[in-house]
Specification:
Elements lengths: L1 E5 L4 H18 L17 E7 L5 E10 L10 E9 L8 H15 L4 E7 L3 H9 L3 E2 L12 E7 L3
Parallel strand pairs: 4-5
Antiparallel strand pairs: 1-2, 2-3, 3-4, 5-7, 6-7
Amino acid sequence: MEIRKTRFDHPDAIRLNDLVQLEYAERYGDGDLTHMAADHFDPPQGLYLLGYDADGKPVASGGWRAQDASPEGFEDGDAEIKRMFVVREARGRGYARAILAELEATAAAAGRSRMVLETGQKQPEAIALYESCGYLPVAKFGFYRYVALSVHLGKPLTA
């Protein structure tokens, strides 16, 4: 897989975002309602990645955006993961793990001290991936902090 830095409003990113929103709707009855804008992922305060297979097809995505202490429960130095996704036909090939590793490395290089994410109990494969990469439960944060099905995980970053 080739990983490319891009913008959240790139046509391929939009296409994968539409697919992940459909998957959220299948699992939870609605898409992710968290406010996001393309500039949230602009360096140095964020980064958005797309993964392309050998045929040049976009098959994976993920981004991080800087967060600091807020009433929503974020802490200073947080990098929040958003839109980690791999298309169904490309799952099980290590693409998510590769995107995640690049997100962690770039967030650490940008001076972020902790990677955090929110997923849901109806995404056991995502939870398993994050736990296998060292993510542990953290205090709830963000838009879904009061939703019972939400799972909030974090991991310290090292430069």
